[in-house]
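Postdoc handover notes: sequence design on the structure in folder B. Input tokens:
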């Protein structure tokens, strides 16, 4: 015996226009509440403190190696601080191929990736290997003891000329590891 559904039953299973609007409204409300919760956790998340990875690092200018010297290694911030003839550069250690940490090779004066052999010049330019761009940079601010900003890295992350500030004992370099600048293309 077959059971034939009556047209009245079929209609009862269909959503009415009012019900459909109600569900759509509930879905929109859930989306808005979800987005709000996501945004508030984003703002509530504590920012990295100074001296922590992702925060800023202050290095006295006196600690900057001389031009031609070995770069200063900052292990916590994972960057190298280089004094090039054109100015100071802060180079992110992570290789731009697959993020292995590059090491300084004093014999060739190059940064070398231990994973697949990419090599980078003292100023971070890509020289060889599978990486497709130079080492990324972190912007540097040259800061007086008063907190006054004396100079800043340009938007391309080029070397920061130190000029007369290099003679002052109170000046510091502030490296912002939250603001990475992509290295130059290979
Ligand atoms: S991770 Fe550096 S060359 Fe592959």
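Designed sequence:
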């Amino acid at each position: 015996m077959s059971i034939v559904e009556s047209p009245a039953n079929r209609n009862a299973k269909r959503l009415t226009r009012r019900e459909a609007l109600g569900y759509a409204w509930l879905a929109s409300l859930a989306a808005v509440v979800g987005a709000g919760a996501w945004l508030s956790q984003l703002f509530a998340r504590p920012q990295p403190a100074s001296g922590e990875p992702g925060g800023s690092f202050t290095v006295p200018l006196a600690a900057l190696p001389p031009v031609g010297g070995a770069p200063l290694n900052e292990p916590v911030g994972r960057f190298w601080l280089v004094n090039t003839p054109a100015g100071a550069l802060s180079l992110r250690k992570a290789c731009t191929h697959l993020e292995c940490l590059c090491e300084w090779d004093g014999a060739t004066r190059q940064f070398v990736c231990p994973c697949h052999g990419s090599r980078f010049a003292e100023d971070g330019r890509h020289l060889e290997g599978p990486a497709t761009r130079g080492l990324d940079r972190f912007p540097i601010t040259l800061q007086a003891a008063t907190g006054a900003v004396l100079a800043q890295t340009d938007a391309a992350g080029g070397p920061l000329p130190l000029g007369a500030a290099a003679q002052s004992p109170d000046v510091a370099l502030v490296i912002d590891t939250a603001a990475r600048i992509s290295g130059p293309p290979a």
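Context for whoever picks this up: Residues 17-44 form the longest helix (28 residues). Don't rerun without checking with the PI first.
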